[in-house]
Design a protein that fits this description.
The chain has 115 residues and is an alpha+beta fold. The protein has 5 helices and 5 strands; from the N terminus they run H-H-E-E-E-E-H-H-E-H. Strands 3-2-1-4-5 form a 5-stranded mixed sheet. The radius of gyration is 13 Å and the shape is globular.
């Protein structure tokens, strides 16, 4: 099972990956939205912002998110690490229910280009 530190590191690497995209994909990541990533097996939630193509983690909370963020992710720590390492395809994991992504319709349309 991935640790809290490994999950935080994976989010930092995901942020670096998002910042490195160019062209049309850069526009897709240029949202300014609140973000939560609930790690279900650890019972923690990282909260922050998706801003200027980067993920800024601002806090780590116990339990599920206390308030609804604009973009909400939920998955196990192992799945987060595997996705960032390229071992788990996001679209397949989302379609199978291993990863949950919730956001407004417009945000989902913009984010799908990154996924």
């Amino acid at each position: 099972m991935a640790t809290t530190e490994e999950c935080r590191s994976a989010l930092d690497r995901l942020s670096d990956n998002l910042a490195a995209v160019d062209g049309e994909l850069r526009g897709a990541g240029a949202l300014d939205r609140s973000l939560s990533c609930h790690i279900t097996d650890l019972g923690i939630t990282f909260t922050g912002r998706l801003r200027a193509g980067r993920i800024e983690v601002l806090d780590t909370l116990d339990g599920p998110p206390a308030k609804k963020a604009d973009v909400r992710l939920a998955m196990t720590g192992d799945d987060l690490v595997a996705m960032v390492e390229g071992k788990l395809n996001f679209a397949k994991a989302w379609a199978s229910g291993r990863v949950r992504l919730e956001a407004g319709f417009r945000d989902l349309l913009r984010l799908r280009a990154l996924l």
